[in-house]
Every structure is written in C-alpha cells, then in structure tokens.
User: What shape does this take?
Amino acid sequence: MLPLVYHSSYSFPLPANHRFPVGKYALLKNALAGDFAAVAHQYFSAEPDADYPRCWHEPNYVEGFLTQSLPTMMARRIGFPMSDKLIERTLAANKGTLLTAELALEHGLALHLSGGYHHAHFDKGGGYCIFNDLAMAAQTLVAQGRARRVLVFDCDVHQGDGTATMLAKHPDCISVSVHAARNYPAKKPDSDLDIALAAGLTDHDYLSAMVDALELSLRYFQPDLVLYDAGVDIHSDDELGYFNVSSQGLYQRDYQVLKRCLEKDIPVAAVIGGGYQTELQKVVDLHRLLFKAAAALKP
Ligand SMILES: [Zn+2]
Assistant: This one.
C-alpha cells in the first residue's frame, strides 16, 4: 500500500494573475485518481497545527504570520498576499510533510502532494516558502528518537538555502542540495553538501551528478530516513529553471532516488517541490512522474 498525503486546503485562492501555480495540487489529486486506479494506495491528511512551527521557528516571525501582521518587507519576501486560507494551507501542508515522513518510516515509502518549502529560514520566509517543512520534519523525528539521522535530499532546481541554515548546527539532520549554480536564491548558504550544476545541463550529465551526490550522501551520512524534494523545475520547459532535462530524465531521477533508497532499506518520504509553467496541466504532468515511479517500485 502506497500512502499519499493531501489536504483540501492545498490549492487556495490567489489573485488571478499571481505567478504561483496554486491550482496544481488539486489538479494533481484528480490526475492521480486515474493513474492510481489499479495501484494499492491510501490517502491521509494532516490538520492545520499552529503549534508545530512554534516549536521550530522564531516566535515573533511565527506569530506575525499567524496574525497577518508581518512587516511589509517580510511578507513581500514570501511572495503571497496574506490571508486566512494561506494560513490554513501553510499549517496543513507543513504538518503534512511530517505525516508523510511518519508514514514512510512505517511503510518504507510515502508521498506528499505538496511540500518542499526549502527557502524558509528560522526567522523569515522567502520564495513562496513560509515555514520549512523539511527541516521541521527532520528535527522532529530526531528529537522524538524516531529516526537517528535524517537526510534531506533536495533536487529542486533552486538551492535549499532555508534548509541549509536551519539544519546547519544539527549533526543528525543533513542537508544536501543538487541545484542550478546560477539561480534563485542569490545568496546560497552552505548545505552539508551542495552540488551546483551549470545551466543547460541535459539528462545524462544531470542524472550522473545526481546519482553521485545521492550515493555519496547515503554512504557517508548513513541516514535512516530520506526526505526527498522532487521539484520538477529542473525540466527544460520550466520558466524559472535553466536546465535542459527532459520528461524521461525527470522520471529517471525520481525512479533512481526512490529505488536506491529502497534497495538499501532506507525509508523515503517525497514531497513534490517547485514547478513553474504558465500551462498548469504541463506542471501537473511532470509531478505525476514521481507518483508513477513510486507505483512502479512498490506495486
Ligand atoms: Zn524551485
């Protein structure tokens, strides 16, 4: 049985011309109804929980967000207009990644139809990320003794700067980022391992660098859980990414990450991460590849 995590708040209302593809979560859920008709799976939801970010983020920042009173510059860095729906969605999606990680520990593999808020730092958000679901889930499971060492393996095209700073002083929560060297964020604080790749990279070179980074991380850090950010903005058609990776290459990336963790008996929880194309269905079709790879590995 493949556990999937989703909450009805994920696709929340944004102004019509907003660049963030907020409709993709509900569309992905609909698409999977067809894709997964013959795949044993079960849906789970995490309810919004304001106490969760309070455990891991700076108190004034958390309360400022929850009361919609963040300074203008801080809200602008995040990139969303503040609203009750944004708060509900943020709290549900952050807890959803923790739930996905817990389900992965139980079932070996679990997938979140959201998540990957890797630009959120301890005391500020950025790039559509408010609280860092990956860093919070890793720290929670280690603090609770449910995992000894957690690896965040981030393959979104953008560097995981927030994860890097939040986990910098945490020896049992490891941040690894495979990303485009020249892209947002301009300032890239050190992860435990950063693989910065040149623009224009094609399937073969991308996959070879990614597999090297994964194998090195698994061998060196010996995690007992992997949180995988499967951002699809590495695709050649992405409007915010600069790689030339094809759909087949993207599928291979997801398949290889999941397979290499599972064959070493390391549970893996995947989140969908970023993906930016004006035509929403094209982004959704790329996110579906992660779920197809998971279904192929765990029938
Ligand atoms: Zn991204």
